[in-house]
């Protein structure tokens, strides 16, 4: 077979209704498609078997993780081109794609693809895939296992990807500077929105490797409790805190946020954690944080969102993310998050959308991973490194194309008097003693 790429290209056009926007190279060395751009390399016919048994995103991802398909050239350009085929085809997502052997209109193309794919049965999923889960979502045990799958990959691996800041959430780019500068500016922005002062009690929910806790204690004199479900994160954070000489002001706990009972706190930060909470649990999350704040206390909720869909009662997950990256993770539209915070009693005083900032951040993380690829593979595995490269690059494209966003909600447990303590002029988050706004 010396024309596999040409045959694949023709079949793709029949199945998709439009030509592939990228060049193909098949396992037999043949090529087809537009020249001059990125090349989608199909290294083995097993990739086609995966697609036949699991049409859509998950089949493609399994082939990617197994190394059966690859990309030569600009990964972002290839993902952007394929995104147009997947995302711009209406409301049906990739996992609801019609199987070509079951649809009479596509059966001929499906049979031709079957012939190209080679002998069945399909290969098993790569080992890194999370097994299908049953039972109630977001129990404490299930959430603990999901968090461990993603965050207990190894602190050295995360240090390689994230850089010295060890911040695993959207940076805040104020013009120029490095990734570390942008992450510091994000932490400082959050501290200013929370109006942190010496002696304030801050609860950092989903504290990660301790970066927000350290910044709040060192730069603002706060007394911080950080909670995480990842034991590896907690150990790393405690070591950093001891090295900074801040152990008397920061406590790191391996604890579920639902089990925190030592309020009231003056402020709560939740940075990139609420995506793990899920729609079935979100009202309890908002209620718990409201109950942990003193009257007048502030919450900064930094959270990824998705675009609204027609059926907002359904449970929405991304097949790739759920199987390989964030098991049981779920994104909600921005409006639903705001409404739930208000239903819990919060007064939402500010929402800042920083979608483009996350695309820039992810591109920096991908660059770090690619620069240190050999070490990343040694620290984890070839499959795990490929998963992280694809998920971060694809997420960057999703932010750039406005498929997902990220927002900072500043919410207040406003006391009965109505005195919120928020400055009259928005976006100036601290006040002088006479009540007039000041920049920091």
Tell me roughly what share of residues is in helical segments: 40-55%
Low-pLDDT parts are 88-97, 432-437
Share of β-strand residues = 15-25%
Broad shape: elongated
End-to-end span in angstroms?
68 Å
Tell me the name of the CATH class of the largest domain: Alpha Beta
Radius of gyration (Å) = 24 Å
CATH fold topology of the largest domain: Rossmann fold
Main beta-sheet strand count, sense and barrel state:
7 strands, mixed
Number of structural domains: 2
Treating each run of at least 4 consecutive H or I residues as one helix, how many helices?
A: 16
Question: Which architecture of the largest domain would the CATH scheme give at its second level?
Answer: 3-Layer(aba) Sandwich
Structure description:
The protein has 440 residues and is of the alpha/beta class. The chain folds into two domains: 4-117, no CATH class; 140-438, 3-Layer(aba) Sandwich (Rossmann fold). The chain contains 16 helices and 13 strands. 42% of the residues are buried.
